[in-house]
Each structure stands twice: as structure tokens, then as C-alpha cells.
Design brief:
mainly alpha, 3 helices, about 80% helix
Length: about 80
């Protein structure tokens, strides 16, 4: 892989990490979109909302599992 392609990929990884971490910490999508200089908020949503929604679903599934484990325990 050439150096310029590698640098572009690293830039995308940093942008993605920033966006996803910001969303997980409660930042507004419009603010993240502005920082990333997306012309349309839909672009930001397209690339980053699905990741955080998967995180939320995994968290909810984990809560359900832990709740069921606690309810099954006959201490």
C-alpha cells in the first residue's frame, strides 16, 4: 500500500473514532457534522449513527441477560 493511501485511511480512522466517541458521550449529531465539515447532516448520520445504535442494542441485550440471570438466581 502506498504512503498516501495509508495516510488517508489513518485520517478516516481518526475521524470515525472521534465521531463515534463523541456520539457515545452525548454530543449532538449536528455538532459532530459541523466539526467533520459534512455539507449535510445525513452524511454524518449515514456513517456514524448505525455504529452507535448497534452499541445501544448490545447494551440493552446485555441488561436483559443480566436481569434474567439475577431473576433465575435463588439465593
Amino acid at each position: 500500500m502506498c504512503i498516501s493511501t495509508n495516510l488517508k485511511l489513518q485520517k478516516l480512522k481518526v475521524r470515525g473514532s472521534f465521531a463515534i466517541t463523541s456520539l457515545r458521550n452525548g454530543c449532538e449529531i449536528k455538532d459532530i457534522s459541523e466539526v467533520l465539515r459534512h455539507k449535510r447532516i445525513e452524511t454524518t448520520e449515514k456513517y456514524y449513527i448505525s455504529s452507535t445504535m448497534k452499541d445501544k442494542m448490545n447494551f440493552i441485550i446485555g441488561l436483559d441477560k443480566n436481569h434474567n440471570d439475577i431473576m433465575m438466581c435463588h439465593c
